[in-house]
């Protein structure tokens, strides 16, 4: 399973990129607004900051409701950073989003259909040619449904139906989500920087380092 970072915060993106573990970036309107920057400018900064990834998702705005409106916004987004090959158009899981997805796929543009909460939604998006689908597991857990189970079912369906759409497990809240979606067959997990940090930590690692440092202080100089 690959790691994407789920943020529009440039510092966090740069820190994760430096670690060498990053395969992509996902953003959404809420994440961009949180940064207090102009959407297109931030997408350009992100694309420049992470040249060696496979995808940077930029979502059409909530103002785009029809397929035509989504396609018009996508046509502007794909020009950013000189037509960067990594730009991926994130589209909502609506009938208009599916129509825009099929259109953009035919044009060779990468797409990520977002706000997926059922296997059927994932199947529709895959059939519309989506490069990626984004099931939101944390938000399902929030309403007492099993988000990881949804990812497992989508992975199973894509396997038996031989669909090459990749699953981005999104709305990931903690390290256990990451382990479980990896085992469930997600291709990618998109996670906030705080969760990436948590993944790297264990108290016994800290204790071990502390013991090495204490023993080393007694070494023959
Ligand atoms: O990538 C989708 C993600 O940003 C949603 O996460 O935590 O707002 O449910 P959350």
Automatic annotation (TrEMBL):
It is an enzyme of class 2 (transferase). Keywords: Cytoplasm, Pentose shunt, Schiff base, Transferase. PROSITE patterns: TRANSALDOLASE_1, TRANSALDOLASE_2. Coiled coil: none annotated. Its EC number is 2.2.1.2. Transaldolase is important for the balance of metabolites in the pentose-phosphate pathway. This is Probable transaldolase.
């Amino acid at each position: 399973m690959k790691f994407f970072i789920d943020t529009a915060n440039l510092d966090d993106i740069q820190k994760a990129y430096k670690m060498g573990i990053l395969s992509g970036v996902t953003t959404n309107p809420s994440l961009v607004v949180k940064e207090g920057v102009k959407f297109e400018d931030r997408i350009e900064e992100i694309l420049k900051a992470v040249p060696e990834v496979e995808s940077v998702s930029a979502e059409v705005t909530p103002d785009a409701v029809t397929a035509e409106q989504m396609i018009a916004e996508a046509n502007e987004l794909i020009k950013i950073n000189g037509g960067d090959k990594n730009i991926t158009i994130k589209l909502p899981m609506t009938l208009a989003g599916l129509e825009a997805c099929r259109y953009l796929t035919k044009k060779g543009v990468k797409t990520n259909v977002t706000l997926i909460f059922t296997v059927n939604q994932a199947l529709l998006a895959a059939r519309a040619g989506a490069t990626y689908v984004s099931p939101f597991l944390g938000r399902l857990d929030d309403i007492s449904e099993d988000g990881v189970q949804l990812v497992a079912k989508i992975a199973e369906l894509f396997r038996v139906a031989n669909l090459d759409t990749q699953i981005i497990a999104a709305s990931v809240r903690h390290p256990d989500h990451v382990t479980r979606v990896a085992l469930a067959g997600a291709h990618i997990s998109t996670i906030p920087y705080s969760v990436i940090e948590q993944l790297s930590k264990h108290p016994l690692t800290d204790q071990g380092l502390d013991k090495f440092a204490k023993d080393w202080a007694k070494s023959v100089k």
